[in-house]
Amino acid sequence: MISLEEKIVGSIVGSALGDALGSPLEKLSHDQIMQYYGKVDRLGVKKIRETPTIPKKGNGYITDDTLMALKICEIYSEKKDHLDAYDIFKLIDKIYYEKTWIPEFQINSPLIERLFYSEKYIFLSNYLANRDPRSAGIGNMVNCGAMMYCGPIGLVNACDPFSAYKEAISFASAHQWSYGLEAAGVFAAAVSAATIPDITVDKIIEIAIDLANDGTKMAISTLLKATREMDPIQDNANELCQIVSNFTGINNEFLRPREILGNPSESYAPSRKKSIEELPVALAYINIYKNEPYKALIEGINYGRDSDSIGATIGAIIGAQHGINIFPQNMLKELQEINAYNFIEIAKQFYQIVIKIQKKDFELLNLVQEMRRTLKEVKYHDS
User: What are the Cα distances from residue 206, in Å, to 53, 222, 312?
Assistant: First the structure.
């Protein structure tokens, strides 16, 4: 049996690996990836289309997906308890006032300088506008920005997907809303479910669908149904992209070309019928390659578009299910050397925090159960 420590280390390290593998492919279509690179299955790949604000993107470097998830680990390590919306101020403190090693910049800098606009909204809405953090996510562009750091929430609530879902929704409400918030909860639940001993992919996805609501539930269910008819030997990327676009409504807006500026659009707008793209696609690849989890990661990043977030999502879930040993050990060594982060040691230290939090949970549960037994005995005696 795979230990909880192996699963937690596998999830954190796997997420970082998926992020780094997918980074150079971000904003490329699947066909463009095949044209420029062929299939990418290694670190160190340079980005064909440079990002002006991040000229060193790719090259095996992790992105904001991993850096934000590591900040959540730090907050748990300091608080040693569960999170809610008001803990967003701890995150703001870390991304704005503290300096972080940012591999893509090769400098220590406030992490907020690396974040996308919708993640900077955390600072704007909660700190500058001084909004109630429980609803501060309202008004943000709807995307996967909150989901990307909720993997550790699933790990703290290991084997308890419903609690993981609730905690992620509570915390991320300070950042996201609508289907962006829903994705954060469902992703945390999927990571939590993956830590259950001997769980199958079918059961992980079943739990995700059961907890999901609205467009997120519909998107995952629809892609799951489609994958049952897909041949793992075939290239399914464009078919998956076409199916999920019915729920995202995002086509060329993903690249934000200048010519669409000011045009009316439903992209990134709240809706009970919509879903983000990254989570349903990640679960689809995990389902297609349920017997080859590492191949799910490689195929997932080569899907393109938001490839780093898709990779991070797949890596977090398959790592939590199978542990760290499903990933090539030489690649993990390279990942740590390139980024100057000891992800394995960070994850092992986080495991110790998870154990402390869960011990408190068990003690509280035992206390509640004892109080309930006492109340029953008093009621029986009085009657």
Answer: 40, 13, 21
